[in-house]
Amino acid sequence: MLEPSKFSTEVHEALKTFNNSTISADCLDNTLRRTLDQLLPLQAQTILQRPVSPWFSLCIKVAKQHRRTAERRWRKTRLTIHRHIFMTHRHKVKTIIQN
């Protein structure tokens, strides 16, 4: 985790070497990048790619989106009609997945 006080100190020390009249944007950018790389070096991260389930289709995806929209509407309004709409969409998603 980057400590703001340590970052501030490091940047301040790095900028002391420059003359105010000769600082360019590229030079400042390079200095800040070097400072950040010293304090927080880049780390490689592994990303797993899982294969798509054979039963999952575009029809199921759209039905789930409608279900989530109906659920959000019901949770926001708490109206009985919106709850029934949500329950209908929920049942539809179950049926599509079972088929």
TrEMBL record:
Provide this UniProt record's keywords sorted from A to Z. Answer: ATP-binding, Helicase, Hydrolase, Nucleotide-binding
Any one Gene Ontology molecular-function term assigned to this protein's record: helicase activity
Q: Which domain of life is it from?
A: Eukaryota
Report what the protein is called. ATP-dependent DNA helicase
Species this chain originates from: Elysia marginata
